[in-house]
Amino acid sequence: MKDPRRLLRSVHVPDEDGAAERAWEVVRAAFAEREPVAWPRRHARPLLAAAVVVAVVAGAISPAGRAVIRSLRDAIGREKVVGIRRAEPALFRLPAQGQALVASPAGPWVVQPDGSKRLLHGWRAAAWSPHALYVAVTRRHELAALTPRGEVRWSLARRGLMRGASWSFEGFRVAYLNGTQLRLVVGNGEGDHVLVPRVRPVPPAWRPVGPQHVLAYVGARGAVHVIDADTRRELGSFREGSPEELLWSADGALIAARSSGLISVYRPNGVRVTGISTRSFAVVPGSIPAAAFAPKGHTLAYVTYDAKANRSAIYVGQRRVFTGPGHFTRLVWSPDGRWLLVAWPDANQLFFVRTSGPHKVLAVSDVRRQFGGFPNPAGWCCAGQ
Amino acid sequence: MAGSSRQERAWVRGARDGSAADLEALFREHWPRAYRAAYLVVHDAAAAEDVAQEAFLAALRALDRFDRRRPFGPWLHRIVVNRAIDWARARSLRGEVFAEGLVEVAAPAVEAPTSRAPYEDKTLAALGDLSPEHRAVIVLRYLLEYTPGEIAELLELPRGTVNSRLRRGLDQLGGRLDEGDR
What we know:
The structure holds 2 protein chains of 2 kinds. Helix content of chain A is about 15%, strand content about 40%. Chain A is of the alpha+beta class. In chain A, the strands form 7 sheets. Chain A has a 4-stranded antiparallel beta sheet, with no helix packed on it. In chain A, strands 4-5-6-7 form a 4-stranded antiparallel beta sheet, with no helix packed on it. A 4-stranded antiparallel beta sheet of chain A has the order 8-9-10-11, with no helix packed on it. Chain B contains 10 helices and no strands. Chain B has helices at about 5-15, 20-40, 45-60, 70-90, 90-100, 100-105, 120-130, 130-140, 150-155, 160-180. Classes of the chains: A alpha+beta, B mainly alpha.
């Protein structure tokens, strides 16, 4: 056999330079987030010991013990999430074309490419119509279609709680949840009717291409059903995990069900294609709190959360593009597929991470104050339309 | 062996004190071998990048606790190799989970260059026939150049186990490469 040293050194390692640059960006960002230890460890250690004693005693003698433990841990230097250091103080612009929709406790906001934004006051959850001509919004017992300027085009009221409104691919149907019912209304606000009487409280998802109006929803027993919403014919179904979100690939060839620790990917006819689980990433205990298919192709972006390390990571396909402490709660793709808009509540930041080409991250800080509470991205639509 | 110099201790000290330049020097010094070692154990470029990157992040998180009198390299390599072994062991699970689908769901892979020495693929294929544990000791011994005693310490294994893994690993590797040459 040849010299094993020479053999091992001669093996071609793919994209060595690119890997080094991507990894350095992540390490550098983590280093920038790192809080310097405020005082020498020799002081922290006895304080930690004292804190543990105090906390155990407090835990033993008072019901408020758990809070004491938490606050003392904070006081002795638990990792504090500071987010991306070179963040902009406000959202001055979007890095790609299209209008973003974010939902904060104050209501949904429509954000223009130049960063100007409009609050759809008084409404809660929101979803874009296919070409961003309208926004479907809900509040308690009401569903409405608004223009991005906030003008009401139509609205309807029903007895149950309204949520999860979703527009069909050409805007001719709106599916929504009302109490335990899945209902359907024509895109002009007429013809409202019950489609399925009992479903799980998971927003229904339209297949993004036609010609049929194909809708996926989670039935009362937890299975995902794919139906032709006009004929009610079932095209396929599957049951895996406990779905919290349904996602279609842009071409409608794949449907993914995101559960807490699993993304299951199926064909619309119910044939399993693949799955991504937290165990695959050795982040157990952990979760997959957010996912989204790219606007073109079958690339899936998703967030993993490692509870043990209290760290989140964003993956685009198999490639990790960003990691940080705490939770990332939502992500949406830019219409051109080059950026992800990500919510980072622990850092009070929204940030954009580039999904291809050189690594780049743009962040906006102090977003709670600017949006009347923390804004979670709900959509980003549509370039050139 | 990389990473035992006075210069390296200065970089570690600088990084602990908040110098990004010192951290970068440390990263540039150790990344190539950490990434190569991970790749030779896991045989998957994206996973190797993750493993090596995670190892640097883990080292970064523990930097304040790092004993500056010790060299940085073995500390990092221990993390890299152990994570790579874990990843490779979990591959069977991932194989079940990802199967063909990840090809479709994942981002497009970087195209492999075409100009390779003819024995590279054979080496990789022959290494791939070894268990992750055998690959790891071969990589630690012949790429990272640790002695069997140091490998035993890094992997927390009896020295005899390291020696037998090395012997068996080399025999298998040699056998496979000789087969390929015939």
